[in-house]
Amino acid sequence: MTKLKKYLKDKYKLNSTQWTIVGIRGFDYVDGKFVQNSDEIDQFNDTVLIMKGTEVRAYRATLDPGLTWILKPMAGILGAARLEEGCYMYQRGKHKGHDAFIQAGKVTIRRDKNKDKKWTMDEEQESGFFGIHIHARFSSGKVGTNSAGCTVLDSLWDQKDWKEFQTLLYSSSQTIFPYVVINQETMDGLC
């Protein structure tokens, strides 16, 4: 955790006195340690942390769209969107009528135009407002239709993990939350 905190401070100038959301692709957080996994598509195999000072809470999640939306993207021929590694600003807001976290600024995405479940450097990248939110899941099972590019905690709206995550951040006086997305390759160097 020390290397991760140093990375957040050095690369993004993040202040440990405010809540920061960190999404890590292809890693589980088990017994206080990061464990790399196969990072398969359509699985809740990523980790979302919320951090402030010495307090760290970890949640199982996905940072990738489900297979349903990869094969039949909302954006049609443009392809399914996935957040690029980086630091973005989020705020309280609504996702399909539920309390969630929405973009407070532009984000950068890459699209899987050829639907091969990989977001490669030769595929389109763009910045803007795409409705890439952070929220709970709507249904059990695989990622499926739960994410078309959003970060989704592996928790239904009324379950403990989502309620804890949402309540803790909503009850703070903070209005903007940095959200740092870290790809598996980068995190591998921080373990």
Report the count of strand segments. Answer: 13
Number of domains: 1
Gross morphology is: globular
End-to-end gap: 8 Å
* Average residue pLDDT: 95
CATH class: Mainly Beta
Strand content: 35-45%
Q: What sequence of helices (H) and strands (E) makes up the elements?
A: HEEEEEHEEEEEEEHEH
The number of helical elements comes to: 4
Radius of gyration: 15 Å
Tell me the helix content. 10-25%
* Major sheet characteristics: 8 strands, mixed
Name the strands of the widest sheet in spatial order: 8-7-13-1-4-5-12-11
Poorly predicted regions: none
Class derived from helix and strand content: alpha+beta
Describe the structure.
This protein has a single domain, classed as L,D-transpeptidase catalytic domain-like, CATH 2.40.440. With 191 residues, the protein is an alpha+beta fold. The model has no long low-confidence stretch (mean pLDDT 95). Helix content is 17%, strand content 39%. The longest helix is centred in the first third of the chain and has 11 residues. The strands form three sheets. An eight-stranded mixed β-sheet has the order 8-7-13-1-4-5-12-11. It has a three-stranded antiparallel β-sheet with strand order 6-9-10. Strands 2-3 form a two-stranded antiparallel ribbon. The termini are close together.
